[in-house]
Amino acid sequence: MSNTTHRPGVQIAHDVDLAKTSAPAETGPPLIDLNDVSVFYGSFEAVRNTTMPVAHNKITAMIGPSGCGKSTILRCLNRMNDLVPGARVTGKITYQGQDLYASDVDAIQVRRRIGMVFQKPNPFPKSIFDNVAYGIRINKIKGNLNDMVEQALRGAALWDEVKDKLKMSGLALSGGQQQRLCIARTIAVKPDVILMDEPCSALDPIATAKIEDLMHELAEQYTIVIVTHNMQQAARVSDYTSFFTAEVDDKGVRHGRLVEFDATNTLFTSPSDKRTEDYITGRFG
Ligand SMILES: Nc1ncnc2c1ncn2[C@@H]1O[C@H](COP(=O)(O)OP(=O)(O)OP(=O)(O)O)[C@@H](O)[C@H]1O
């Protein structure tokens, strides 16, 4: 069987026995583990044979040129692709050792444990307070609502800026504040994992720096997976990085493919694969 293996320090390798691979010793078992994952939209295989771990309380970045399937893989991690008609996932994704796609797993519960922050800040047209309280209310999480909202806003480094205007619309905030509001809304329901799909691409450099600082703080409590177009950002914030590319098959169809997964420092300073090196040195992509 042709497969690819992407444990730290291991470049893409075809025809490798997956059973011989293991998670990095320093991080223990991965919180999320992707094993030979392919994703289809209808008959189109968008991403092929992705095998990589997501380490607990670390930041894992996914980088690569446009269309190589980073967002597609990210959306598999909390079953967001279930909402896309025709989308299909093969291979295995485990979360805390359990098959995320087993028939008895409730996708809504998965999305509560594995939250998502999108590229464009998308607060609800509600007050700042109600944006953060939303998930607490619909999930009927017990506790003092005011305290939980404050805690989430503090966790998202937004409390000091909004504590006197909690009734103001979330849409009246700046773009960077809106993104931190969305992060507060995500952490209000106390997930284990935060998925971030290019969370800074709509933000200016100052707002971006605030989100990057915040990510470091959040990583003390949460496992984070971030898709970013910005290689410097991946190098600054992440502990592990996976590099994807798009390969054209003999019928001329482009498929996303994981090329290399490693500790971020290693991937950026001594990549194992020429394609990674070409990308990070700006020779292509
Ligand atoms: N809902 C969808 N239906 C059909 N094809 C899709 C869908 N979403 C993505 N694709 C296709 O899957 C492939 C991977 O797309 P994806 O958005 O995951 O790539 P990406 O690496 O995140 O790209 P970008 O960096 O531009 O956001 C592309 O060919 C894209 O056109």
Largest sheet: 11 strands, mixed
Number of strand segments: 11
Identify the CATH architecture of the domain at 10-119 and 192-280.
3-Layer(aba) Sandwich
The unique ligands bound to this protein are: adenosine-5'-triphosphate
Helix-strand layout with pairing:
Elements: E1 10-11, E2 32-41, E3 44-54, E4 59-63, H1 70-76, E5 87-95, E6 98-99, H2 107-113, E7 114-117, H3 128-138, H4 145-155, H5 159-162, H6 175-187, E8 193-197, H7 205-218, E9 223-227, H8 231-237, E10 240-248, E11 254-263, H9 264-269, H10 274-280
Helix pairs in contact: 3-4, 3-6, 4-6, 6-7
The structure holds adenosine-5'-triphosphate (ATP).
Description:
There is one protein chain. The chain contains 10 helices and 11 strands. The protein is of the alpha/beta class. Strands 1, 2, 3, 4, 5, 6, 7, 8, 9, 10 and 11 form an 11-stranded mixed sheet that branches. Helix content is 31%, strand content 25%. It has a domain of 199 residues: P-loop containing nucleotide triphosphate hydrolases (Rossmann fold). The N terminus is likely disordered. The chain is globular. Adenosine-5'-triphosphate binds next to α1. The site of adenosine-5'-triphosphate has 13 residues, from α1. One of its GO terms (biological process) is phosphate ion transmembrane transport. Keywords: ATP-binding, Nucleotide-binding, Translocase, Transport. This is Phosphate import ATP-binding protein PstB.
